[in-house]
Amino acid sequence: MRFTRTRDKILFIDTSAFVAIANEGDIWHSDSAKFLDEIKSGKTTFRTLVTSDYIIDETITRIRFSVGHKEAVKWGDKILSSAVIDVISVDKEIFDKAWDLFKRYEDKELSFTDCTSFVIMERMNIRHAFAFDEDFERLGFKQLPGE
Given pLDDT bands bounded at 50, 70 and 90, which one contains residue 42? Predict the structure, then answer.
């Protein structure tokens, strides 16, 4: 994992963002493509991009069923070979803390994968998520792109 300077922000990328970028029919496609262009062109302060192996799993599966197998393979290869996205593996500590979080929030309808993301974000002091999933904001994170 790269070490970032303190002025650089870390951005967590959620499944909903990857799927919106990949699927031109997604309601958030144009917003996600525009925000991705802003990140690539340096118009944001995000220099480190992070996701998890669980997000990659979920992303490939959702793209497979919404766009097709070829597109899922393309996106899987793109994410896995990216030089700018750090992929965090869900280890036992993350898994156990996510399980505790999942059990605690019966009222919020969180997915277990979301819970692993929240634990990773807390562990790495990440406050921003490239996501179209309101659960990030419900748990105190800043969801981007904003309105």
Answer: confident
pLDDT > 60? residue 4: no
Q: How many CB atoms lie within 10 A of CB 44?
A: 16
Can you list the domains of the chain with their CATH numbers? Answer: 9-89+126-144 (3.40.50.1010)
Backbone phi and psi for residue 140, each to the nearest 5 degrees, phi listed first: 95, 10
Residue type present at position 32: S
- Nearby residues of 94 by Cβ (< 8 Å), 6 or more positions away: 88, 116, 119, 120, 123
Per residue, the 3-state secondary structure of 20-76, as one string, reads HHHCCCCCCHHHHHHHHHHHHCCCCCEEEEEEEHHHHHHHHHHHHHHCCHHHHHHHH
Q: Is 66 exposed, middle or buried (0-12, 13-18, 19+ CB in 10 A)?
A: middle
Quote the pTM value: 0.88
